[in-house]
Amino acid sequence: MSGGVLIAGTTSDAGKSVLTAGICRWLARRGVKVAPFKGQNMSLNSFVTREGAEIGRAQAMQAQAARVEPTALMNPVLLKPGGDRSSQVVLLGKPVGELSARGFFGSVRPDEPARAVSGGRREALLEPVLACLAELRATHDVVVCEGAGSPAEINLRRTDIVNMGVARAAKLPVLVVGDIDRGGVFASFFGTTALLAPEDQALVAGYVVNKFRGDVELLKPGIEMLRGITGRHTYGVLPYADGLGIDEEDGLRVSLRGAVRESVVAPPAGEEVLRVAVCAVPLMSNFTDVDALAAEPGVVVRFVDRPEELADADLVVVPGTRGTVRALAWLRERGLADALLRRVAEGRPVLGICGGYQLLGERIEDEVESRAGTVEGLGVLPVRVRFAVEKTLARPSGSALGEPVEGYEIHHGVAEVLGGEPVFTDAGGRALDGCRAGAVWGTHWHGSLESDGYRRAFLTEVARAAGRRFVPAPGTSFGRLREEQLDRLGDLIEEHADTGALLRLIEQGAPPGLPFLPPGAP
Question: Among 15, 2, 5, which Cα is nearest to 167's?
Fold first, then answer.
């Protein structure tokens, strides 16, 4: 088969990423060569491909669902919010400048991608976005595209490079997914469609209901009425599913109280629970690093923003951030910095990752990210950090605690390690990255805790330093758990979508003659 489809949503978090990944896994299990695509992503959770390109973690997860290697083609434009209503623009995997609410300014370096957007207009990015999509379609049977936010954000339609702008240019059929758990899903489906221009409406083939609880028979009259009003088919009703655990897309939208990830599996009898507190710093990035900890039986992970919440933690993690200096000031303002210093003085474990590692050091020199100049760090690691204009993007591997480790690096800060012990070394024992001083660990490597042997060895060290009688379960495989989660997404499509109609839509495009809905009148 060949073709494509774009998954749009009535709102943010309606289920676009889940539906895209589910369709990718369902098609891959059928033997279809499928790839995910998102023209523009705004996220602080990113990933580095094997060729050294930075893309959104959601697209990397969807590539895994499709059983293909992630590439920069799958997410040509990544916007990384940095506060003050600006975002770093990552184009084709490399940073090229800053995007404000009104346009581009200040290219990081004068390379070819930067010249593509030198006109200062967001819509100038549509050409490279469509070129990437065309290349993916030329090398895959099917491309499943994900939109962003809602396609009915009419104030943004002129500059749209991710929703109907892509669908119309590439002649892709569109499915609109809505979260019924929020309520008002039928009104959202109708309103989303009615606000679109006639040319865009002609591509909206139908709808998918997400997060339905209860007896689907009770929903059928509404679905039939929706078809009578809009002339469009509902391609599936996906049930509410707990614990899917897919990578979050937007770190800025994480609730400090709601983003609690904890193991649902108790530790073996006679062993203690290990408690992990993650400081929810501003502009938190790649907080998915702690997912591997939460996957361990008996490890409880929670995000915190008050010093008293560190009191009973066996391990405190200071995660990555797009604003290292800002995060450091926030820790001090909230009293968390003092709580961390007390922990270190007591010999209790602390782990800093990327930006969290940098702020644990003695000094930060930053004329790039915050432009704050020289700032004193917390001083618990013998490390000095200087921010470079060039961003480090890498997929390193090495060993730690006698175990092999893989990770990925995304940072402007360059660490000068003045003492302590390296966290990761090569086969000859030479330092690769990081610094360890007593019970304090720091590293630039994201994703290292997904290496099962190293994670278990690290938790054993943490438990020993914390005085806990905790032994990690030897059979836990983070990679296997991730595959099981992706298979669950594929099962949702196979079991609850109209797969026959979906296959026809992907191959044949939107049905001709779909009615136009004038805004405000059914």
Answer: 5
104-105 and 3-9 beta bridge pairing: unpaired
H helix or E strand, kind and range, residue 86: strand 86-91
As a whole number of angstroms, the distance between CA 422 and CA 444 comes to 12
Q: Do domains 3-42+55-69+125-245+483-506 and 268-472 have the same CATH topology?
A: yes
Q: At what angle do helices 478-496 and 57-66 cross, to 10 degrees?
A: 70
Q: Is the separation of the CB atoms in 72 and 92 below 8 Å?
A: yes
Angle at which helices 478-496 and 16-29 cross, to 10°: 90
Residue 144, H or E segment:
strand 142-146
Domain 268-472 = CATH 3.40.30.10 = no
Residue whose structure tokens are 């979260």: 179
The 3-state DSSP composition of the chain as helix, strand, coil percent (nearest 5) reads 35, 30, 40
The residue ranges of every structural domain in the chain are: 3-42+55-69+125-245+483-506, 268-472
Active site residues: 354, 446
Q: CA 425 to CA 442: how far, in whole Å?
A: 14
Q: Residue 483 has which token pair?
A: 């595959």
Neighbouring residues of 106: CB distance < 8 A, sequence distance ≥ 6: 97, 98
Categorize the per-residue pLDDT at 100 as very low, low, confident or very high, splitting at 50, 70 and 90. Answer: confident
Say how far apart CA 341 and CA 364 lie, in whole Å.
18
Of 469, 442, 440, residue with least CA distance to 315: 440
Which sign, positive or negative, has the C-alpha torsion 399, 384, 412, 336?
Answer: positive
> pLDDT tens digits, residue range 380-411?
999 999 999 999 999 999 999 999 999 999 99
Within 10 Å of residue 6's Cβ, how many Cβ atoms? Answer: 31
Q: What confidence tens digit (pLDDT) does each residue in 183-227 have?
A: 999 999 999 999 999 999 999 999 999 999 999 999 999 999 999
What's the confidence (pLDDT) of residue 97? 85
Q: What is the pLDDT of residue 123?
A: 64
> Comparing C-alpha atoms, which of 377, 378, 382, 444 is closest to residue 417?
382
Which whole number is the average pLDDT over 332-340?
A: 98
DSSP SS3 for 373? strand
State the pTM of this model.
Answer: 0.90
Rounded alpha-carbon distances, angstroms, from residue 135 to 36, 55, 140: 12, 17, 9
Over its C-alpha atoms, the chain yields an Rg (Å, rounded) of 24
Summarize the confidence of residues 30-55 as an average pLDDT: 96
- Tokens representing 161 are 């490079």
- What's the CATH number of domain 3-42+55-69+125-245+483-506, 3.40.47.10, 1.10.260.40, 3.40.50.300, 3.40.50.720? 3.40.50.300
Q: What pLDDT sits at residue 246?
A: 64
How many whole angstroms separate alpha carbon 488 and alpha carbon 61? 14
Q: How many residues does the chain have?
A: 522
